[in-house]
Give the backbone structure.
Amino acid sequence: MWHSIPDLGSALVLAILLAASYAFALALLAARRQPRWLAAARLAAYGTVALSTVAVLVLAYAFVTHDFRIRYVAQYSDRSMPTPYLLSALWGGQDGSVLWWVFLLGVYIAACVRWLKGRYLALQPYIIATLMVVVMFFALLMLFSSSPFATSLSGARLDGHGLNPLLQNFYMAVHPPSLYVGFVGCTVPFAFAVAALLSGRLDSEWIVAVRKWMLFAWLFLSIGNGLGMLWAYVELGWGGYWAWDPVENASFLPWLTATAYVHSTMIQERRAMLKIWNLFLIALTFFLTIFGTFLTRSGAIASVHAFAQSNVGVYFLWFLGLIAATSVGLVLWRLPALRSDARIESVASREAAFVANNWALLGATAFVLVATTFPLVSKALFAQTVSVGPPFYNRWMAPIGLAIFLLMGLAPLFGWRKTSPKSLRSAFVAPCAAALALALLHLAFGSAFGFPPFVPNDPIVPGPLGLALQKLGSSTPLVTASLAAFNLAVIAQEFYRGAASRMLAHRESVLTALLTLVDRARRRYGGYVVHFGVTLMFIGFLGQAWGVSRETSLRPGESFTLDRYVLRYDGPRETVDPNKRMAFADVTVLKSGSDKQLGKLSPARFFYKKNPEQPTSEVSVLHSVRDDLYVVLGGFGDDKIASFQIHVNPLVSWIWAGLLFLILGAAISLWPDVPVSS
């Protein structure tokens, strides 16, 4: 019988390491084509999963019972916290997040081992062995550097420090788990890639097997990044949703490479091409998930999202080296078998468009990676920390993003292998006409509706390059709007052509033809729905060009006009709950030029009892399809004077709508195939 929860938890972490090592050894024996060892390795993998699940449940129990003997529980909770936030504290700090990672990886391992059953018998031992190596790394990390069950040397506290007030938010409770599901999910495709290289089975078998695993991970990377944007928008109070923070970038990098992979894998499936490239993308995506984890937890960078500085960085660097060395070594070993006789036959082909799209995505990855790590490089080489801010990212990422946006629309217009001039003309007419029409309408009426086609843009790079970037930045609204029209027309044309063909061949109604079309080619048309969502998100990002921000201080009864809104400050009020004191400023929003009331807002400042020196700004937002009225309470002065930061953020709601369509499209692509009668 264990004497305490801390002892039980520490014993479970050690048991996870031992069970994973045992499963790894059995998997290596099974690689000699001995079925009984494979069956034993599968059972040992399930045992490892069970131990990680029990360990998470023990830590959750420690939180809900306020076991402040455990240092991690004392640091990230207190008695006044509601149960949902006590549970979210599981991943709110470094030590618990490592255990949470192992638990999620265990869920993936259980699902993968069960799904494999009698499939891919030559790959299974290597898949299990690779997954166990990752479990072993994180178990070692918990044992020697980041134990979630370590006890405080001073003994149990009467109460804990409490969770960071910024993390006591709904979106922060769901954002990290979603992002972790995406991060951890990239381990399974990597394990398949390693298994294919080790076993020598380098045809399209493993690519087909890994398709939905990577798409599922990509989906949750998308959801995690989107929820992170929502959290930043409603909690940080600076008026935006993406600040190119290093930890934001760390979660964005694997999304870019995973996006490249889900496109390039189609070329290998159809043409048996790009074998090395796809292996590289899978390995790079997994490498970047671990690299992002390293950035977040090592304390090497300053970020509002990062954990406290610790010594785990050394462990991660060794593991990153192992991943890189193993991947490169295995590819070089199998290089002769990875070469393909197939080639891209024409620039006017879908293969060429996908490759160009991949290079644009890898260009974005390289730029963000270099800019994010530049402070580390400058400190190491020049003994000074030099960082770059959002204006730098926005200026350089604008042309890269627009190139990716253009290529997203171009690819579906080309056929595989080569496209005839007649087919090209037929495919391009409607999208180009839509783009041209939208550009002319924007030039003619954009300014009158408050969306000018050109915006002022200051140069940040001297010389001709800086001038070119300035001109491109100024014309970004017009270019983006035109490309959005182009992409929407491409998507509509693809659905129209497919549905019209079915209506003609099977005499189906429009709705039946569309539903059957999507059902019979879920991957293709689910991808178009994703593209539709991405297009909506680009329209939402475009709104930044027309945003307006002001600061003001008002007495009760006074009003302030910004853009099409009049804000009347009605006065302060205060409420309390067991966890915090909440100071609100009630504001009535009226339409400029009339007495029509559009809504009421109540921005606030929350003062947590455990962290009174860290008040949080709780923004209040009036949403509409056109724009968001975003109000932040700065504080109160004498005579109930309240200071406000007011932002009018155009088209932000389009981002969240686009994210929903992206999720829908990915879900359609992931939906299991079911035979349907004609």
About this structure: The mean pLDDT is 89. The radius of gyration is 27 Å. The longest strand covers residues 565-576.
